[in-house]
Structures are given as C-alpha cells and as structure tokens.
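Suppose a colleague, Dr. K., hands you the sequence of a protein chain of 773 amino acids and asks what its three-dimensional shape might be. Before reaching for any lab equipment, you can write down a predicted structure in token form. Begin with the sequence itself:
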Amino acid sequence: MRQLIQWMIGEKVVRDDGYVYEIAGGWPWPVWVTVIVVVLCLAFFWGWYYRRTIDLAKYQRIILVLLRAGVTLAIIAMLAQWVVIPQRTSRPLIGIVLDDSMSMSVEDETVGTTAAAAKSASDREKSTRSRWAAAIDAVTSRERGLLHRLADQYRVRVYFLNDVPIDGKSADEVANRLKDARPQRLSTPLGRSILQVLDRLRGAPPAALVVFTDGVNNEGPSLADAAEEAARQFIPVFFVALGAEGRRPDVLIENWLMEERVFAGDKVVLRADIVTKHVRDKQVYVRLVDESNKNVFMEKKVDVTETGRQEVTMAFQPPRVGEIVLRLECQPVSGEVALENNSQTKILWVEKRAIRVLLIGNTPGFEYRFLQNCLGRESSITLRSVLLSADPELEEDLDNGLWLIRGAREEVWTQDVIILVDLPAAVFPPRVWEDLAGFVDRNEKPGGLVVIAGPNWRWEASASTPLARVLPISSGSSVVDIVADSASRVMPTDDGWRVPWFLLGTTLEDSRQIWSRLPGIYCFHDIKDIKPGARILATVEKNQRQYPVCIFSYVGRGRVLFHAMDETWRWRKVNNLMWYRQFWIELIRCMARSKLETGGGAILSTDRKTYSPGDPVWITLQGVIGQSDLGGEVTVWLGQDGRSRRQITLQRRSPEANTFQTVLHDLTPGQYVAWLAGERESVRTSFTVLPPKKEMQQTDVAWEEMAAAAKRTGGAVYRVGQIDRLIHSLPAGKASPVEILPPITLWNQPLILAFIVGMLTIEWALRKMWGLM
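The predicted structure, expressed as tokens, is then:
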C-alpha cells in the first residue's frame, strides 16, 4: 500500500525487478483542489442514486457510486495526460575504506587472550594477529566477509587511503587483490581519504561508508573535518576499530642524571626515571652499555607498575680513561612497538691523574690521624698534611703550615680538595681564611672544601671569618654543642642516599644494612638553621629529634661539605676499616670533580635534542657560577622559533652536581632555545619539538576520535568481531538510476478506454437487473 501511494503521488518507488517508475503529467489543479472535486463528485453521485433508487439496498447504491467514480477518475487521468517514465536502476552503493598505513602491521592480542595466558610460543603466535590481517579477513572472507555478504543488496566499492580504488569485475577478484596488498604507507591521511571518497562518489552518493582503521590521523584534515562533510551530505560513517583494547604498552627513559667528568677509578652514580604506560609486565630490565664495544656495564631488574614512574640508580666504575659513550636502555616490554624512547645516550669523560688533597688540622686528634693514614695509603691521592701544632724542630717531617700564614694562595688553589679538621677561628689570620674561602667561590676552577667541626670549633668565632660566607650555616643561626652519654647512630637522609659516598653496599638495601651496623657518635653540634640550597645528607637521632651532622652545598661550581662531628674514625671497627676507607675515598673523589668541569662556566642541557608532541622536556642546569646564597632556584629564558619567549624557573635538585631542573609539558612543535637570564646569556641550549607523530610512533587506537566522528554522521564504531551488527546497522539506501527508458503514456492507452467502457457496461447491466431502466 505504501508503494502504491508513493506511486500515485509521483515519488520514485524501487521495485524488485531493478526499475524505478516515475509518474509525470500536466494536471493543472493542485492536489487539494482535485481531492475536493473528487469528494464532491462522490457526494453528488450518492445523493443522486439515493433519491432515485429508494427501493435499492445500501450496498447496491455503493456499488453504483463506485462504478461512476471509477469512470470519473479515468476521465481525469485522460485529461491530465499522465505518463509513466521507467528508469533502470542499480543497487545502493556502499564504500569501504581500508587503512593501509604501516601502523596496521602492528600485531595485537586477540580478544579474550593475553600473552601471559599463553603457555607456549605457538600459543602466543595464535593469540596475536596483525590489524591488517584482521581487516582483510573481515572484508574478503567468503563466509563472513563484507564483500560477499553485501553483494546481493549493495554495490561495494573498496578504497585504500588517498582515494586509491581497488577495481575488479567480481567480489572474488577484488578479494584476491586485497589479499595481495600490504600496509606500507608512511602516514595516515584518514580524514583526507574520507573526503576524497565522498568527492569521488558525489554523483552517486553511497548509502554509507565503512572505514577499517585504528583511528589515528597524522596527516591532512582531521576526522572531525571529514565527519562534518559526511554529515552535510547525510552519509553515515561506520568505523571498524582495529587494535587491542586499551592503549599500547610503552616504557621510556627520562631524566638521566650523572656527572659527566670524573677521575679514573671513581664510582659514578647515575639516576634515571623509568616511565611505564599501560604495561602488564611486573619488571623491566635496564642496561648500561658501552657504545664503542657494546659491552654491558650493568644490568638491573626494576619493579614497575602498570602506569607510573620509577627511579633507577646504578653505580659503576668506568673501565678506561678518555671519552666513553654510554647508552642507558630499557628492554622492550610485551606488546611494545614504539622503541625509539627506550634508550638515551650520554658521553662520560674519564681523566687519569692523582687527586691533590690538602689536610689541615690543629691537633693530632683521632679524626686527623685516621684520615691522614687512610688518604696517605691511597695511590690515587696525593696528600699534603698540615698539623698546625707541630714543632718542626722535634718532628722534621711534619708540616706546621707556616707557608699558609706567610701567604700561598696559588699553592692552595691548585689543590683539588681541602679538608679542615676541627680548626678554631684563631689559628689563621683573616687573609688565610679568605684564601680558603676563595678556593671555593673565587677560584677559576673551584675545588671541594670539607670542614670537620670537632670540640675546638666554635660557630660564634667562625661566623666572623671570611670562611663563613661559603659554609652552609645561616649567618644568624645558633649552634649548640651536644655531648651524649650514649652513642647516636648516623643515618643518611633521602638526599644522602643519592650521593656515592653513602652507598657503601652494592644496592641501596645493602647500604642501609651497613649503616645500621656502624658505631654511633657521642659529640656533635646542633645546627639550628642552614642556608637556602644547602642539603642535609645525614642526621643523628637524639631524644626523638633529628640533628643534621652532614650538610652539603654548592657555592657557584665549588662544593662545600660540613661535618658537624669529628667521630667518623669510630667506623674503623667494622669490617677492618673497609667501610671507613670507602666512605672517605668516595667523598674525596666526588668533592674533587668540580675541578674537572671545563671552561669555568655553567652547562645548560636537555635530556634529548628532539621530542615528539606531548613528551616531557627536562631542562637541566649544572655548575652555576654565583653567590653562595643563590638559593633553591634559578631563572631561565625559553624562546620558540626566534619569536615568543617566556621565563621558566629551575628548582635545585639535591644533591646532584650543582643541578637545577624543571620539566615542561605540552610544548607546541617548533625550534626552542633556552638560556640563562641576566648576565649569563652565553649559557644556552636548543631542542626541537617535532610535528605530530607519524607511523609506528602512535599506535594506540583513537577511540574517542572515531566515536565523535561516527556520532556526528549518524554512524557507529564496531570491533572486528561485530561485523554482523554492522551489517544490520547499514541503511537500505536508494537505488541509483543508470538508464531512462522511453515514457509510457497512460491517457491514451486502450486499457483506459476499455476500463471506461467496462465500467459503463457493468453499470448498465446492474441498473437493468435491478429494475432501474
């Protein structure tokens, strides 16, 4: 009935025989006028028969009225000169777009199966398949593929990206060509490809588009732009999402920090962040590799979470002197594809020479004597000991330091490390204290200063000397001497565990156990207030309070370590002086490294030179030359493409080698330059944020983008296993005319005349039979 009504009012009607019939004519009246006239005619006929056929039954009157109405309609049809225009049609069109970019070669675990559940290698092979294989199977399979299942109802056109058609005389021929194709495109212009297909089919709009893809669009117009155009043409777009549920696993190395110039034999401690994203593995392997010969220095197993950040610490001794190119790499995790961020490279410079140490004490106390004995036996250290209370007439081999008092700045400043053991302020005139302070903050190549405060050291007196400006104690701080009846164990702080000389064991846990076994101390100074930027490396606990006994600070590029006690000699009792010796040798080596920094200037750097969009950018500043009260932050300018610039703040990272850091997120693509603010603009670094990622760098399924595009066009997003639901969701579409046949006239057809004559004959016969004539 619906098709009959549409046919009567002139709309196109699709017949099963592949034809469309359209009625055309020249009837001058509007439809509503025609309807009113027909109704009035029927009313007239009914009234006429009602008055003249009183003896007839009601059904007899109705038959006569209908016969007369049929004749009237036939006459109207002849007067309107209606014709039927037949058109041969084709089936509705469905367009299929196949994403043939390289990301479609990624292998994903099949639904309901995980690699962890696979018991053998063969099981794992069966549980994974590439996205391309899944798409080709969904399109070409004879039993369940779209090509064969839609062939009876639709004409199917298949395209690759960039509007590349796959032609064939039959579904089997197209399927064979698809099976021979491979995903090799280097980018995914998904939005542009949909627009190109819509433009190609503009003359015969498809009933729908079906797109097999992972949804990633990294070139040209976006999916949203393509969806707007499809919605404007009333063409729904259905997506078949290819890829694993959730996001692709990824593990990357960020924020690698270590000192890049060391002495031969030094223990180098590196730290880096292992960042995991959607990782199912519970552990990852991190390796440090010598790039020149591919030797593995260290390999460490790190516990990780599914998504998070875990700091890894490694300590090693360089195997040779000179330049060593190091690569820190993280082994790929299960299902990881983007491997370019799994490693970073740094250059380590190893210098072989003896470390020059000047040891100055006033009296031959235990700390002085054990230090003199320990450092004097170390072949990598050239030790010069000064005992100010020595009498050269009695002990000719002792140095009483008169050369210091007479003035020997150049000789003092050539040292790598100076150790002051329990010196009262009165032992030197101000000029000598000035030379010792200048060794740290005014020397072209500053060194490391270690100040050991024993029972003879007093802050009230030292605060008035030039040395006070480089000590980590605030000028207004009060210092109280504490003498305990029982020993208090020295324990490193979180900052302390980050410096090599507190890592006495091979692992952090081993080091904690060693420190818990070392003897405690009895006497120390209570430092009430320290300068900004200074870091507490170790404390002792007394009466449920923590007292700092080891404080480290940078003064420009020089290093200052303050010991608020002089009882490390007590540690000699454990392990035959081994831990005592290791502690002081590593301390001396680390304090001496400031002498190795070249150029006397700061170094501004980034952890990489190129970044992808969304990658965090770590900016690091090392070796700042400045006042000792520089504090916990410095300001750096950041400029983009030579146009815009802004200030960023770097926070001091304790207690790495005079290091300030910050991390920047969501930088737009472009060339960037960072430089120190103020008078330090010669210290700069540059890096690049690349345009959006191309193939194999972004392989996560873009669910949100596909869902938004499908919703805008009236389509939907399905998985490969939901092909049946997809087929049932496709609209029926409209047939497309391919040929207009000659029109068939209705008004002069013999059937019309025969119909009129027949109606009149039947009416005459009935009237005669019912006695109306």
